[in-house]
Specification:
With 221 residues, this protein is α/β, with parallel strands linked by helices. It is 32% helix and 13% strand. It has six helices and eight strands; from the N terminus they run ααβββαβββαβαβα. Strand 4 and strand 5 form a beta hairpin.
């Protein structure tokens, strides 16, 4: 979540993509390709919404709490954007205040998950959708964002319960999208190019966190 609100990540224009696809189809002379691309694009057209189940979560250990639709954009990941990264954030506040911020359409930012000090996990955006959490459009499209309750300058906020719950969540995300469990693919918000955020900060124990993820990754689901 960090120090400043991330700028809104504007959606791609369907018309331009459709024209590009149409040109490719014409050049290749492939009706099958055209049908395939149209099948993927139908839900992006005005007035058409991709079917969703209300309250559905991607992680069994999470409770659904919906973020404002102004703070994320509808997508069909990983079909339209491959997911190859997890971004770790710190809320710079309490759990409830983070939920309230992500439900505020004026906030213009939200992460997929929030993990509390007690290990409680809330999912606020579906993994298939693009959350405005990283302050970088490319990283938003390719990553899952996980917020952690607390402040970067208070190491006591990063409890064992939080680390363990977050590690289990990240392990399941990595398994689902075949993401390598390493520091190139599991990063802090501070490591996103172009950001002015510092989270998760120097008190975040990366060695402990990665060890817990690897342990959870090899444990039964």
């Amino acid at each position: 979540m960090g120090q400043r609100k991330a700028s809104r990540d504007g959606d791609r224009k369907v018309g331009r993509r459709a024209l590009l696809i149409g040109g490719t189809v014409a050049a290749a002379g492939s009706a099958a390709l055209a049908r395939d691309e149209l099948a993927r694009l139908w839900w992006r057209t005005p007035g058409v919404e991709k079917p969703r189940k209300e309250g559905e979560v991607d992680y069994a250990g999470a409770r659904w709490v919906a973020a404002s639709e102004a703070n994320w954009r509808r997508a069909d990941r990983p079909d339209d954007y491959g997911i190859d990264m997890v971004v770790v954030h710190v809320t710079q506040g309490g759990f409830d205040s983070a939920v309230k911020a992500f439900q505020d359409p004026g906030h213009k930012a939200a992460a997929h998950y929030i993990v509390g000090r007690d290990g409680h996990v809330a999912q606020m955006i579906r993994e298939l959708d693009v959350a405005y959490h990283a302050g970088n459009r490319d990283y938003n499209e390719r990553s899952i964002g996980i917020e952690h309750e607390g402040f970067v300058d208070r190491p006591q906020d990063f409890t064992d319960e939080m680390y363990e719950a977050s590690a289990r969540l990240t392990a399941r995300i990595c398994a689902r999208y075949d993401i390598p469990v390493d520091r190139e693919h599991i990063i802090g918000h501070v490591e996103v190019p172009g950001t002015d955020h510092t989270d998760p900060g120097r008190h975040w124990d990366w060695e402990k966190y990665m060890r817990l993820i690897r342990r959870a990754r090899t444990s039964p689901a």
